[in-house]
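General statements about sequence and structure are easier to judge against a single worked case. Part of our work consisted of pairing the sequence of a single chain with a tokenised description of its backbone. The amino acid sequence and the backbone structure tokens for this protein are reproduced below.

***
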Amino acid sequence: MVNLKSMVGYLRSVGVPEDRVILITPPPLCEDAWEKECLVQGCKLNRLNSVVGEYARACLRVAQDCGTDVLDLWTLMQTDGQDFSSYLSDGLHLSPKGNEFLSSHLWPLVEKKVSSLPLLLPYWRDVAEAKPELSLLGDGDH
């Protein structure tokens, strides 16, 4: 927890307010698939989903203590006892489907944080193809 709190503290020290930070818990571990991967590498199972859950709960506590948002991937992927193995490529790391799952839950949180930011550059369709510098640097509408 100390490490994660220090990361949030560092962000705060360089001007990133807590309301702009989103912590993400680790995904659950599929022990069977990860054990197979470990055996291929010549070692035994070196992680347990219950321990990953402890890390996830610590992340939730840090988010609460620091006033940041949090995406609880560990819990979301295991909701209603669903089979989350397809979200993991090797039992530990996210697969393409897992990345899609993450994105579908993270994007609404990001959108909420950036929706009120001003648009600093023109919309891509409004950039003049022939002379984009006019659209990007001023001196004309396009």
Q: What stands out?
A: The radius of gyration is 21 Å.
